[in-house]
Specification:
alpha+beta, 12-stranded antiparallel beta sheet
């Protein structure tokens, strides 16, 4: 998959959602006309009509975005754990499905929920945040790189495992409703990377306790060339050049834990 295929899938999903919402509004209107459903028909159908319009507008935005893409996209893939800049995009899904792209538009990998059942579409977002989660990190060919187990509760407690099931780190979030404050630990429980950022998660840096920069996260800005392929608010992870694979896997786990509430 490349960024064009991602936009096309998202556009199709929004188009189908728009029609489903419109059909539901029509069904409710017919039922009301035959006095099967009582009440104010405008109040009953308005949410579905508004949702239908919003989804159709989103569909058109993605269609226009596809037309603006360069005709030829570079497909070179250096590997997820060898790439310095990783762009994060969200696929429509009942739970977290986070696609990881290189700046040239090629797919590097994916973070996805292992419990992506259809009924999760029906679970409210505030409730979904409290449920335990199991995610996996795979490369662009679907090969397993890591697993993330998140305990139930409002504040994240994450166990991070490699592809063989060995623990390589932990993330523990402290209790705070206005900012994200926590600690990333090594596999032996040693404090490693303190985390302090605002709850809006528009930009942050993560450094080791010794002050060595590991990664930065930025939304709302990107080089002009990248803007031809991605939306300007696409989150970007930028790893320091000397960061090894294990810390990168752990950072992806931190992102999975903190971004799981994002609308998909």
């Amino acid at each position: 998959m490349n960024i064009r295929e991602y936009y096309q899938k998202t556009s199709n999903s929004n188009f189908h959602a728009s029609w489903i919402s419109l059909v539901l509004a029509i069904v409710f209107f017919i039922c009301h006309a035959f006095t099967i459903i009582p009440g104010n028909i405008l109040l009953i159908t308005a949410p579905f009509i508004i949702l239908s319009i919003a989804q159709f507008v989103s569909h058109r935005i993605y269609e226009n975005r596809i037309k603006e893409l360069p005709i030829e996209l570079i497909e070179t893939n250096t590997g997820l754990l060898q790439t310095e800049h990783v762009l994060l995009t969200f696929m429509p899904a009942p739970t977290l499905r986070l696609l990881l792209f290189a700046s040239n538009g090629s797919l590097l990998g994916e973070i996805r929920d292992l419990n992506m059942k259809w009924f999760m579409w029906m679970v409210p977002n505030f409730l979904s945040m409290l449920l335990p989660k199991r995610y996996e990190l795979v490369d662009h060919e679907g090969h397993l790189l890591a697993k993330y187990y998140i305990k139930r509760g409002l504040f994240n407690k994450v166990t991070i495992l490699d592809h063989q099931g060995g623990v390589i780190g932990f993330y523990q979030e402290n209790k705070s409703l206005v900012k994200i404050n926590g600690m990333i630990y090594k596999f032996d429980g040693t404090e490693w990377m303190p985390v302090q950022t605002s709850g809006s998660l528009t930009s942050f840096e993560i450094k080791t306790k010794e002050g060595e920069k590991v990664v930065s996260y930025q939304e709302g800005w990107m080089p002009l060339e990248w803007g031809k392929r991605f939306k300007t608010n696409t989150p970007i992870l930028t790893f320091s050049s000397n960061v090894e694979e294990s810390p990168k896997i752990i950072i992806f786990g931190f992102c999975a834990a903190t971004l799981n509430h994002r609308s998909n």
